[in-house]
Amino acid sequence: MDPEKVNYHYCDDLSTNPLPEGTRVLVTGANGYVAHRLIPELVSRGYIVRCMYRNNNCPPLLTHPRIEHVYADCLNMEELLPALQGVDHAYYLIHSMRSKKEEFVAKDQLAAKNFRESAEQHGVKRIIYLGGLGEKNDRMSSHLRSRREVGNILSQGNIPVIRVRAAIILGTGSASYELMKSLTLNNRFIPFLSEFNSVCQPIAIRDVIKYLVGVMETPGLGTRVFQIGGKDVLTYKEMILSFAKILNRRVHFIDVSLLPIPVDLLCRLYAYWLNCFISIPVNITYLLLDSLKTDVVCEDNEISTILPFKTLDFVTAVQWAQEKEKRSMVFSHWSDVPPENMSDLLPLCQFESSEFIIEEHGIDIPATPEQVFPVVCQIGGKHGWNHANFLWEIRGLIDRLLGGVGLHRGRRDPAHLRVGDSVDFWRVEKLEPNQELLLRAEMITPGLSWLQFQLDSDQNGGTHLTLRAHFIPKPFWGNLYWVVLSNFHSYIFKGMLEFFKKKSLQISAP
Question: 3, 214, 309, 467: which could join 40 in a potential S-S bond, CB 3.0 to 4.6 Å?
Fold first, then answer.
């Protein structure tokens, strides 16, 4: 995809000038939410952009003569050293929020140390790190504490490190935005803790990108910290009420502070409760809630003397995000990154397991593949699963209760798919227009699952649509799981095919 097709042109009015032609910029975490917004801006300003992914199971979305793709895990120095060769400036956008608490702190610190040492060996001129506001507070969450430590580790070398600290980032697809939207849309009564009276200075994603690009292009900056925030300073309650007003919803807060339960445990229970109806994983939800106990506001506005532009207020940021959703202009989404335990899975074509279980169903549809394929690609999200949706909802609820992603993760776009997109508890592994859609399961099962839709033209100009469920069972439990659900699978899959036929005939009718 050409990056200009998804470039929001945040930096067109930036006061700084692009660095000399041929400047190579490394963007780590290139499949993440912020990186997906940053990369098109850098390409548009003339830079050679090297996108770094942890593994090759996250396919690049953008292609351009000035875009390079490298694969390296910051926990592996042998992979990291070649990735930084020839790099002038680097954005460090890596964190391990998806890991368990006892894991992400150690991973964050080792990754930062390896990155700093590799950057020093290759003479990188500047590192820009996006951290969190509130990193000086004694009551900071473990998430903020880890981010502060990462910034300290990166700054211990001889390379200038610009630490940009932001609070809640507002934009279509950001975790904070989706959390507030889910709370507002799915609840009339919202639990409230007195600790959530802390104030926050949220910032729009467009302003974050402008600051990130601007500090790279400002000459003479040494190692320092810049605090960035939007126009408004709000409490958690004020943000939710403002969000609800924009969505024309009425919500009420229930104070649960009087319950004789420690605050940390209440936050954890709150996260698990939210987990039943919102799309964000419970560990990320907990970290976001835990951060609400700390004031996260800008203590100085020094960056405005270097990059003097007006940031958006909360209401405008949310309204613009809503408008992009209505116009299907959501390019990056928090769910673009697979769950931690799913990120290293091989694609279906690379498995040579003799334990494969394959269930196949087919149907002939008197419509062309060009008419059938868009119907197939609308599954999931708000469209549902076309047949036996109640059974899908039960499966999604079970997955959430087990700690999985569930059905509420939805889709980035209601009509269009791309490789790497999440579709409820599936992810698009392969997409060949009018020929094949392959989904890999990210639900919790005793095995590995794929759902494949293959379209073949027949001699009469129609389409033979084949649905194949692939499953590699774990010993005993996987086989038992498949046997128990086999009748449900057949009922669901045959019904889906009949729906695709009916819908395709409606579209193809003159």
Answer: 3
